[in-house]
Amino acid sequence: MKHFLVFILILVSNSIFACGFYPYAEDVRFSFFNPSNFKYRWYSDFNYSSLSFSVNQIPADEEITVDANEKLWIQYCKNKVSAEAVREVLFDFKLDDITDKSTNEMLQYLYKTKDIEAVDYLKFAKNCEVFNVFYDNLWEQNNAQKVRNRTKLIDQAILLSNSVKNKNLKQRYTFLAIRLAYYNGDFGKIRTLYAKVFKTQKQGNVLKYWSLYFRTFAEPDKATANFYASQVFANAPDKRFMVSFAFNAKIPIDAVLKHAKTNKEKANVYLLAGIKKADHSLYYLKQVYKYNPEFDGLAFLLLREINKIEDWVFTPYYSLFNPSVGSYDRNEENSVRNIMQRVEKDRIYAGQVIEFINNVNLKKVHDPALWKTGKAYLALITKDNQGCLKQISKLEKSVSRKDSLYNQIEIIKALALTVNQQVGKAVILNDVKPILLKNKTQKKFLFAVGRELEYKGNRIDASFLYSKLEENDNNDDYNNYAYWKSSKAKIGYYTDYYSDYFTYINVFYSPEQVQAIVDETLKSEKDLDKFSSWKYSFMKKEIVRLYDLIGTKYIRQNKLEQALFYFGKNEDKTEHKINCSDCFWEKEDCSNRFKSPFFVLKYTPEFVTQKKLYSLNKYTVTQNLISYLKKASKPDEKNKDYYNFLIANCYYNMTFIGSLSEMRRYGSGEEISIRDFPVEDNNEFYECNLAKKYYTLAFKNAKTTKFKALCLRMAGKCEANKLAYRYPDDYENPIKNYNTFLLKKNKYYQDLKSKYADDYEDLISDCNAFEEYFRARR
């Protein structure tokens, strides 16, 4: 059953976004308060996560603890046997292995002391194991026989329970009978057996709570079942995961508490109710503390609450994604303003939890280090940086550097020191550097420090930390990635998030800021300290790419001379060829056919004669564009119409509809076509304004009617793209709004139809006519 639930969770999580990846849940959660730094293995299935509740895998290097049943057997054997020997008999041995010839320490002890009753119990228990399932095989037809066999074993277990002298064995036989009755569906038998043997037992052991586990599922009253479940949860760690599903959070807690006779039982009820609560659980923390302050469950509930708070605050604060648990369906609720308003409310709640911790007697609670560390972390969340650092200073003196908790403390310290700096003066502090190096594989931590620097105005150091997200650290943790949004990006598209430094600075950094990144990288000396070597290592391999980015940014600003300068820094320009050809939809192999964007338009037959073919790159395109612009601007130039037309073609090809979009964008297809991608030249990229400008200039300088008509047709084509961009809803129904777009709103097509009526149909309906019209230029 346990593994089946895990399977369902995996199936659901994999199917939600089966058509394409989009980060959600644990992908986006920012968590720096690691539960593994605290010793709550038996509660680990209930660590806060978007998969709650799910079975957690125990780390391979974690020490195996002795469970309650093993301890009971060790006690039964007068502490003369090891836990490993008990574990071998219980989990590894088959019925035939239980003999007096065995070298197992536990069996040797039982045979040596002539405890044949215990040996007979072990053999009987092994016989029952095969029946402790609902179905061994879905296609078996002998279920009735299985029921009869179980019934026979139940009767034998009851008989043996009544006949053995040892109280512990009596309880064990009764437990076996109860468990078999559960799989037989005999809830009445479970209630009878439990009442007879366990109900009046004052000192409960694991056998009682294992039996109460099955008694819980046999209880028809929901409030009573909740009470039983909470007691099993507190006292039988290995049953926690499954029994938690038997606790119905909709039942009023007062109805459940009526069954509690002791303070510890009340605390147990509040604990499970608090763990099942998805939102604020501070009230439950206070109640558990009131009734059982030493309870380890109280400390775990605090740990879980801290993990909830950091998700509510840091996930949206750093990434602008909603918290990993819970979602908001309507986009208007996901505005940056509303997200941050929720964050501030949750920071206030974090302060309320601190107030509770301040009123706790740390000498009474389990694991005071958790409470102290949690207090420091919550102070960071509430923006009390000084309070956080003061608490950290105390913890550093009391925790061993070899303890994993020390690194936890350092992570909090690094964040607090960074955020504690003034806006405009923030840097990567010397005290933070070794912590970053120590945790260089923790990408969300690196990003968080970078994000704090960015918020403080230091975008350059932030970019260096963001660049480390792309380094391969051989970390297989699929949650160890950072995904984030920008307040400038609209919500609801697959490209509204970032996961690498280059895409981010491509959109949001100015050319000057990218140049600053290059300058700092190049200034770095060869013999650097360990941190600086690590800091610059990735960017040193990115210099050529960054120069290309700066040039691309200047293209977006139409600063062509600056763009040419940076494109020229790529010494081997042929490595970055642009495959600019007219054969996008053709079946033939066009890999070696490079056509100039000045002469060829995408999706359009060739109609301008190109005197020579040459390999293209951003440098040569920019160089030729500058050259044509200079020629077109000369007062005495006789071919102004020609050069303006070529310039317009190039600008047109640099838009989303052209063959040369990579002059302005990185990526292809969906990556560059989402219209809400917040790049500074979005209007130009989608509206073709520069192309329209130069087609219009070509029109003004044209000498023939046919060429004027062609220039108007191309200007109208640009205008059509602009209208489609500005009125996407209308554009999606082109048949219904054909006249609206081509005539009523497109003034260039209006002029073409009114002033060049004889040419209108030829130019609008068939681009094959372009060649004839261009040849008529003179």
Poorly predicted tracts of residues: 1-18, 327-332, 574-593, 669-675
How much is the radius of gyration in Å?
A: 36 Å
**Gross morphology:** elongated
Count of alpha/pi helices: 38
Helix content: 55-70%
Structure, briefly:
By secondary structure, the protein is mainly α. It contains 38 helices and no strands.
What does this structure look like?
Among the domains are: 51 residues, no CATH class; 94 residues; 205 residues, no CATH class. It has 778 residues and is mainly alpha-helical. The termini are far apart. Keywords: Signal. This is Lipoprotein.
Topology:
Elements: H1 2-16, H2 68-76, H3 83-92, H4 105-112, H5 116-128, H6 143-163, H7 167-183, H8 187-197, H9 206-217, H10 222-235, H11 240-243, H12 253-257, H13 263-275, H14 282-291, H15 296-319, H16 336-358, H17 368-381, H18 385-398, H19 404-419, H20 433-438, H21 443-455, H22 459-467, H23 501-508, H24 511-523, H25 530-537, H26 543-556, H27 560-567, H28 618-633, H29 640-653, H30 670-673, H31 682-687, H32 689-701, H33 705-726, H34 728-731, H35 738-744, H36 747-755, H37 757-765, H38 770-775
Helix pairs in contact: 5-7, 6-7, 7-8, 7-9, 8-9, 9-10, 10-13, 13-14, 13-15, 14-15, 15-16, 15-17, 16-17, 17-18, 17-19, 18-19, 19-21, 21-22, 22-24, 24-26, 26-27, 27-28, 28-29, 29-32, 32-33, 33-36, 33-37, 36-37
For this entry, give a set of tags.
about 775 residues; mainly alpha; about 55% helix; disordered N terminus; Lipoprotein; signal
